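Lab meeting tomorrow. Please check the following:
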Amino acid sequence: MTTRAHAPHGRRHRRPDRETPSAGGAARTRQSHDRCLDAPPVTRSERLGPHPAGTHHDGAAEERKSIMTTASTASAPIGLVLIDTVNEIFSEQGKGYPGFKAEFERIGTLGNLRRLLAGFRDKGFPAFFSPMSYTDEEYAHWRHKSGIHHMMFDNRMFEAGSWGAEFHPDLTPGPHDVTIAPHKNLDVFATTDLDIQLKRRGVEHVVVAGMIGTMCVESTARSAMERGYRVTLVPDATAPDGGPDSYEQMLRRYALIAHEVLPTGELLATEPFRSR
């Protein structure tokens, strides 16, 4: 039950007008389970330079820096969110690479990510790179570690300032791309500036790709949908934590979360890429 405070006798408080957001219609969801295509790169963001060989620091100072970008803030019809396109996952010497190697090869993940990125850059659409990294202080004092945190922390994966936390050479932000602050959990929106960077550029339709398809990509796409973005997922520009069975289950969940599920080739043939 709600109690209202009454204004003093003779005075009336005006109730401010409230704006009611309009409800958007549900877009069609399309699935393509069996198409694995090759791909080159494309997006917009600035990269922090590598540290000199042989040096080490805990990465705290780097994490505190404001990440500058020369990306345009003009309104864009669509934006690409690339998650964890770093050496730890995509380079053969990376700590996470062996667990995904078979699916990368079966799906053609790296080639499709290159092609997806190139398609966005060719049209001048913004790309938002979301890395993951942890400092010494975070490894030592993180409270309430989840299972995935235990796995990463026990192996010191994504160590801030290390080669593993740097972007893969083929999937590195360019001068017109946007580098998001390192995310700490599965949902990139939860602990970074991704939402405000998208809104600054008028992006309402997000394409989410990168790694891991069943964790960070899925969690971020779900959050984007809950926040009112139109969401497209690209099943051949990611990979699951598991084999083909895990991939098929992932696709079934994608169909429920996203507004479209399109492989790279079909996405790059849609209207935003034909009309510019």
Remarks:
- Strands lie at 79-83, 127-130, 178-179, 205-210, 230-233, 260-261.
